[in-house]
Structures are given as C-alpha cells and as structure tokens.
Write a structure and sequence with these properties.
two-stranded antiparallel sheet, Arc Repressor Mutant, subunit A, 5 helices, alpha+beta, single chain
Length: about 140
C-alpha cells in the first residue's frame, strides 16, 4: 500500500494506491480522486497535479496517470485544459449518474445477497458511506 501526499499549488491531497491489488493502478487513482471530490478534499475548479508530477510522486508510469485523467474526463469529473492541465469540473448529469449507480449497485447488491447480507445491513452501510461523503455539502 502506497499512501502518497501529493502537493499542488500548496494544497495537499492524499492518495492510497495498493501496488499488490488486482485492481489496475489507473482505476485506483481514478477512485481516489473521485473520493477526494466527494469528501471535498478536492473542489470544483481545483487543478490536479500534472501528469508528470503525479507519476513521480506515486512512482508510476506517466501513461497510467494519463489514462486515469482521461477516464475522469470521460466520466465528467475533470476537464483537460492545455494550459492548466486536468481541472476538476463536474458535469452534472444526474440521470446518467443514477443509471451508472444502478448498474454498479446491481452487481454489488447481487454479491451481497449471495453472501446472505440483509436489506437492513445494506441500508445501514449505504447510510454510513453517504454520510461520510455528504458532510461537507451540508455545511454550505
């Protein structure tokens, strides 16, 4: 497990990358950035570190970072600017997000049902996780 403290323009962003995981590193990086946005560690308009800076700090190939940034762009979390690099810019398309969540949750819930996870346990887990990510939004 690599816990990296990335600095961009004086701001810190902590990423956890597990080099022993079966999950691709670019997906881990993408997920960590999405969690950073959800917890408001990374805010709308914030530039992400350059591809080179991110790769050097984590100790990975620049192509891996570039792929993570490209996926984030496709998913509407960042825009790529020639001068500023990757900048957090949320594409608010609620229906698309709900469709993606439905698809992703279907598999997760099916796995839970196969392991005898109850509906109440799922609701409690969802409430816990949702509260973690929505704290900053309620303060505004």
């Amino acid at each position: 497990m690599c816990i990296t403290d990335i600095t961009k323009d004086g701001e810190n962003m902590i990423l956890q990358i597990d080099f022993n995981s079966d999950e691709a590193i670019y997906i881990q990086l993408r997920n960590q950035i999405i969690i950073g946005i959800a917890t408001e560690t990374i805010k709308e308009g914030d530039p992400l570190p350059s591809v080179r800076q991110m790769a050097d700090n984590i100790g990975i190939n620049m192509h891996t970072v570039n792929k993570a940034y490209s996926v984030l762009k496709q998913e509407g979390f960042v825009k790529l600017d020639r001068r500023k690099g990757a900048v957090v810019a949320l594409d608010v398309d609620k229906m698309r997000v709900l469709d993606e969540m439905r698809r992703d949750l279907s598999v997760v819930l099916a796995r839970g049902i196969c392991k005898n996870v109850t509906c109440d346990e799922v609701h409690q887990l969802v409430d816990e996780i949702f509260m973690l990510f929505s704290r900053g939004q309620k303060e505004e």
